[in-house]
Amino acid sequence: MTKNGMRGFSAGILISCAVFSFFYYMMFDHPGEKSVEAHRPLTEAAVNEYLDSHNRVALDTSDYQKYQKWQEDSAAKAAADGKKTDSTAEKKESSSKPEKKKATTYEINIRSGMTPGDISSELVSAKVLKSDQKQDFDQYLHQNDLEKYVQLGTFKVSSEMTIQQIARVITKNK
Predict the structure, then answer these.
(1) pTM given for the model
(2) Which residues contact 50 (CB under 8 A, 6 or more apart)?
(3) Domains in the chain and their CATH numbers?
(4) Which of 96, 135, 146, 158 is buried most deeply by CB count within 10 Å?
(5) What is the mean pLDDT of each run of 10 residues along the chain (174 residues)?
(6) Which of 155, 150, 139, 142 is nearest to 113 (CA)?
(7) Beta carbons of 139 and 156 less than 8 angstroms apart
(8) Which residues are CB-contacts of 169 (< 8 A; sequence separation ≥ 6)?
């Protein structure tokens, strides 16, 4: 490096330090130093005013704990109701005496881009599902969040299987 190159490099360092120090001392608020603007003391009225202006609510710890318990109870009740409806649907399907027809077995090939509606349509055309079960199958996949778990590949299904069993076959174990 030449003598002029070294001088230019040194001048660059000095100028950059001057710019950084200007911004540090003039632009940023330093803790411990007195600020120019006066801060209001934190009072209950100031907190309530802030909460009101931002559409917020403050809760006591006991109220918050009651709210959490209510959420847990609601979730448990919803889960119990979901299990009851699944079990009653299975009982209805198993209690109805199927006619003594020959069971239809079909190998469904699920390809990339197929929707649950495409799958159910193919099952109806293969006589694995009845046409009135098509919407029930689609709703079952949607309500139980199984749409995203449908696997690509070939699966063997039968007309003797329930909607839940068919869904279990074509989805990965959750």
Answers:
(1) 0.42
(2) 56
(3) 103-170 (3.30.1490.480)
(4) 146
(5) 91 94 78 60 84 83 85 85 60 53 83 88 89 89 87 89 90 66
(6) 150
(7) no
(8) 155, 156, 157, 161
